[in-house]
Predict the structure.
Amino acid sequence: MDPRTLTDLLNRVKDATCTVEEAMQQLTGFPSEIMEHANLDHQRHLRTGIPEVIYGASKTVEQIITIARAMLKRASPVLVTRVDPQKAAKILCSCPELEYHEPAGLLCANKADVRMQKTRGKALVVCAGTSDIRVAEEARLTLELFGHPVGSLYDIGVAGLHRLFYRQQLLHEASVIIVVAGMEGALPSVVAGLARAPVIAVPTSVGYGASLGGIAALLGMLNSCAPGVAVVNIDNGFGAACMAHAINCDYSDDAPQ
């Protein structure tokens, strides 16, 4: 349950448009709902600003369906990550409310209204090569689901750096930038040397043998010569989006008076 939903429910109880009994029924399973294979944390959105998210890669179709159905009963965003097309097709038969984004491997529903989410500006997702788009799209779509305006700039790696220079205005306008790159992982350093916004680097497992499944890109990003670059785990577009969400949310109205 997200903060707006809970606030609306409490206001309706206060205005006598909802009885206490009706409110208690809506709060069934709050703050957590114990299930056969999961313990669903309905309070996470209130605590952290990020809803419970289903990691789909190692879960069965039946497990995902059960958890997703419980989440769909709530008004908060629903996100299932790392879902292949075959698994997604089976899940959609039971949960047609979900929408599948194949390039990112995401199932989602109940996208937050960008007009309701107070943000510091527009986020930007950048990736070095076409092979990195899967991870970049995971980051972009996650941010969109959380209610952020997001732009994208793909296939502008350092092998053809002029492609980035032609689009510098997008870097200057962004409030937070996620940079996704494999191979030697050099692009985040370049972007951080051009932009004022915080840069979140995402190494990918794209590359030839000596890339070691993304280790080379990870180490390159951790050793960035540009100051202030934050680095998440290999292929972790979702984690980068969560970090960007925390940076880009405007919580000024929530500050104690």
The longest strand covers residues 176-181. Residues 123-248 form a domain with the Rossmann fold fold (CATH 3.40.50.1970). The chain is about 35% helix and 15% strand.
